[in-house]
Amino acid sequence: MKRDSNKYIKEIKKSVLNYYKERLVSLIIFGSFSRGTYTPESDIDLLLIVDRLPKRKMKRIEEFIDNVEVKIKNIPHYISPIIKTPEEISYGSPILFDMVTDSIIVYDKNDFFQRIIENLKIRFKELGSKKVLKGTKWYWILKPDLKLGEIIEI
Questions:
Q1: What is the pLDDT of residues 103-134, one digit of tens each?
Q2: Which domains does the chain have, with CATH numbers?
Q3: What is the pTM of this model?
């Protein structure tokens, strides 16, 4: 299965770069594919960081489907893209939390995404954050010694 996942990643990267060209800042695979725990029923979770995107989220997805996904051949998995601008990612998002431990950076212009993840790792260490497995689901305890009413910033 590992060999197949590498083939899928190469195909996705090629199609994404062919369409977004210089607008592409970063392409990240996360979820079960990045952990190596995917099954034939798993989807492939993608984070695309792209300059000059349409404002509407659905327009971004339509653009991806019409220009990228249709060109991807021989991948028997549904592709689930999250498409953001560099500014939106820099602002922060809980979607990034799991990418601290489980992500494959496929493309990263000027280490943009790598720097965001490194900063998040530093902040998690300062807070004493822990990733916890309960049953089959993971969750984060961002600050184990959090006091009632205390506000934390990530």
A1: 999 999 999 999 999 999 999 999 999 988 88
A2: 3-123 (3.30.460.10)
A3: 0.89
CA distances from 79 to 21, 48, 99, 118, 122 (A): 20, 12, 17, 26, 31
44 falls in which pLDDT band (50, 70, 90)? very high
Residue pair 74/44 in contact by the 8 Å Cβ criterion: no
- Answer whether 81's CB lies under 8 Å from 64's CB: yes
Partnered with residue 84 across adjacent β-strands are 49
Strands, sheet with 79-84, edge to edge from the N-terminal-most edge strand: 79-84, 44-50, 24-30, 103-108
Going from the C-alpha of 154 to that of each of 48, 54, 73, 87, the distances in angstroms are 22, 27, 39, 16
Give the tens place of pLDDT for each residue, 75-99.
888 999 999 999 999 998 888 998 9
- Output the CA torsion 101→105→111→117 (10° steps): -20
CA distances from 47 to 68, 125, 128, 143, 152 (A): 14, 24, 26, 26, 26
